[in-house]
């Protein structure tokens, strides 16, 4: 079964016919909200709003372990994460969709493993390629039929937040090789890998990163918090297309 984890601006999916909600108890506490079992484009999917139904959870307060554990416990095998980002690389424009292939993790103090030697024995999982490469390929093939602007590679700098970055931090991330910046890819991606779930991300670009382009003088919160109606509509369109054409 496929799960969609929705990020900022995507606390619910228009067009998702809700079948039921399930509160899942986990050894790690509560997920961001009850899991929503629904029907999207004729296919059963599970939806989870990462920041909670009313967007009340800051990125560093999200219980990533509970979210991923809950999804696995109800039979999810694949996850598409929707996570809005700022663009670092000049060629990546606001409104584009990036399908990242790599992550650099700058977060700290988050519960970032199931294998911490307390609940489970220590285990060093392979994370060379943080996103599921075959699911990425399927998604890339599938979205090429759509007219939205997809960037089919990206290095996601995962920052701690909730504040936005300084211009110098963005310069540093760029030197490190990052092309986009967001706050939620980690530890979500690694926890999915630890539980053997296929995990990919589609990242709508909400803004230019701090100090870049239209954000040269600052980033307006209006721009960030309200992914434009159009971007949300396009994201849902992409998801419907994906579930219809691939029936995970
Ligand atoms: N920085 C961090 N996270 C973000 C940004 C950003 O510029 N835009 C959307 N999420």
From TrEMBL:
Catalysed conversion reaction: a purine D-ribonucleoside + phosphate = a purine nucleobase + alpha-D-ribose 1-phosphate
Keywords of this entry: Glycosyltransferase, Purine salvage, Transferase
Domain Nucleoside phosphorylase residue range list: 2-217
Site feature: Important for substrate specificity: 165, 221
Record keyword Nuclease present: no
Organism domain of life: Bacteria
GO biological process entries: L-methionine salvage from methylthioadenosine; purine ribonucleoside salvage
EC number: 2.4.2.1
Note: Although this enzyme belongs to the family of MTA phosphorylases based on sequence homology, it has been shown that conserved amino acid substitutions in the substrate binding pocket convert the substrate specificity of this enzyme from 6-aminopurines to 6-oxopurines.
Biological function: Purine nucleoside phosphorylase which is highly specific for 6-oxopurine nucleosides. Cleaves guanosine or inosine to respective bases and sugar-1-phosphate molecules. Involved in purine salvage.
PANTHER family assigned: S-METHYL-5'-THIOADENOSINE PHOSPHORYLASE (PTHR42679)
Assembly mode: Homohexamer. Dimer of a homotrimer.
Protein name: Probable 6-oxopurine nucleoside phosphorylase
Naturally occurring in which organism (per UniProt): beta proteobacterium KB13
């Amino acid at each position: 079964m496929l799960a969609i984890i929705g990020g900022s601006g995507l606390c619910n999916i228009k067009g998702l016919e809700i079948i039921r909600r399930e509160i899942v108890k986990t050894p790690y506490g509560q997920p961001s909200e009850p899991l929503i079992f629904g029907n999207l484009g004729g296919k059963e999917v599970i939806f989870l709003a990462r920041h909670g139904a009313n967007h009340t959870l800051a990125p560093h307060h999200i219980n990533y372990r509970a979210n991923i554990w809950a999804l696995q416990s109800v039979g999810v095998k694949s996850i598409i994460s929707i996570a809005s980002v700022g663009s670092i690389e000049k060629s990546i424009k606001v409104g584009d969709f990036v399908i990242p292939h790599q992550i650099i993790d700058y977060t700290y103090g988050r519960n970032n493993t199931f294998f911490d030697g307390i609940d489970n024995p220590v285990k060093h999982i392979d994370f060379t390629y943080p996103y599921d490469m075959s699911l990425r390929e399927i998604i890339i093939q599938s979205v090429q039929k759509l007219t939205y602007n997809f960037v089919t590679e990206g290095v996601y700098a995962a920052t701690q937040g909730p504040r936005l970055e300084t211009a110098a931090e963005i310069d540093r991330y760029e030197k490190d090789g990052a092309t986009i910046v967001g706050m939620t890819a980690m530890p979500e991606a690694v926890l999915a890998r630890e539980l053997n779930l296929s995990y990919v991300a589609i990242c709508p670009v909400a803004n230019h990163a701090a100090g870049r382009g239209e954000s040269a003088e600052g980033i307006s919160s209006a721009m960030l918090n309200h992914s434009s109606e159009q971007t949300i509509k396009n994201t849902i369109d992409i998801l419907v297309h994906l579930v219809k054409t691939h029936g995970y």
